[in-house]
Amino acid sequence: MTTLSIGELARATGVKATTIRWYETEGLLPPPARTEGGHRVYGTAHRDRLGFIRHARELGFPMPAIRDLLDLAAHPDRECNMAHAVATAQVTAIDAKLRQLTALRAELARMAEACAGGAAGHCRILETLADHAHGHCADPSHGDPARTPKNVMQPAAIPLR
């Protein structure tokens, strides 16, 4: 049987030792054996399970979903409908995040295009950032001087400290 210290396990999997201990505390990784001196001793099953967790984290799965997937993996005779549901939910979450990032990118591009340089007191980027009345950055009128309410705080009025 292969045995690994926590440092060796961390190097083998690319997961920090503090994260490994946290996974143990959360019950995602089973407690390791201990030496007479109290040091943790891990085996290949720990390494494999930690690799599963790390891969799931890289794919963006939230911890509750990883917990469910680990439980399913521990019961190979079960139907995998739940794994499909978890993966589908993650795809939906990624799609929502992509829409949000696309809207944020468009807003930042609008801000940058509106900047003509010059004095900071007339900077469209600073003015747009000071416009708190827009509701959210996906609002197409955000940063448009013709549509910006007159009561919006101007950059010169923003306290710097």
Oligomer: single chain
**Which residues sit in consecutive blocks of at least 5 with pLDDT less than 50?**
141-145, 147-161
Number of strands: 2
Radius of gyration: 25 Å
Tell me the structural class: mainly alpha
**First and last CA, distance:** 60 Å
Compute the average pLDDT: 84
Summarize the helix and strand pattern as letters. HHEEHHHH
Based on Cα principal axes, name the global outline.
elongated
Helical residues, percent: 40-55%
In DSSP terms (H or I, runs of 4 or more residues), the helix count works out at: 6
For the sheet with most strands, the description reads: 2 strands, antiparallel
Q: How much of the sequence is in beta strands?
A: under 5%
